[in-house]
Amino acid sequence: MQFIRNIMNDIKKCIRIAAKMRNWWRRSSKAARITSSVLLASLLIAWLCFIIFETVNMVSYSSRYSAKLQNSVLIQREKNAYSDNLGNKDNEVADNKSFEKYFDKYCKQKLDKSTVNHVFWKHPTGGEYPNLSGVKVSDLKVNVDLKKQRVHILANGKTVYTMIMSSGMGDSTPHGDYHINMRGKHFFNHEEKVGADYWVGFIGGEYLFHSVPTRYNFGEYIPSEGMKLGKPASHGCVRLSVADAKWFYKNIPDGTAVHIR
Prior knowledge:
Elements (H helix, E strand, L loop, with lengths): L1 H26 L2 H57 L9 H12 L32 E6 L4 E6 L2 E9 L9 E4 L2 E8 L4 E10 L3 E5 L11 H4 L11 E3 L1 H10 L5 E4 L1
Parallel strand pairs: 1-9, 7-8
Antiparallel strand pairs: 1-2, 2-3, 3-8, 4-9, 5-6, 6-7
Pfam family, one: YkuD
InterPro entries: LD-transpeptidase, LD_TPept_cat_dom, Transpep_catalytic_dom
GO molecular function, one term: transferase activity
């Protein structure tokens, strides 16, 4: 009850102050009214400018902090992956200089630079996808260019889409003519301790088109491996970006001819 009484008293005080200001306004001269109006407007404008300035500063700081946090998370993730590759069970990198060289070499960026392009391997690498509805399987073809690390999708003899890929290291991707014959959404190789999503086989289940590597779970991509897209990095399969692999999985039917050279 005391709280309500205090509120009512404050309201009464505000009403009395407003009444006094009203009486002053009526008794004051025109010049005094103009002067007081200008002062009040100036104070209001200054207050609004202060609010806008602080809001802009807060948004700018939030953006910088978010980018810094994102960069830190990425670096830590890469450190973990690097440590895993070294067989370090504690996920610690003893030599930070060696990690920086590794990060710069495979992730194509300095540790203190923006990470805008660090997830390019998640997105389409050839622009807007073509509509293949109505195209017969016999009129579709997949050409794999090992030298340029590109996968070309052909429809009716014309290239309709080109993807960036990663073939096998040491020319381990088989050359020749094959056909798409099976597919699946996810696999994990327990021996190599690596998996992938959206796989499509062209030599049984041994050689595949698939996404950049994952850990055990679907969608748990390994950024350090994703950043290798565009150069030989696999054990023989053809790696694609996540978006490209998903589109390939959904749109390239069994029986499609595959030519690898």
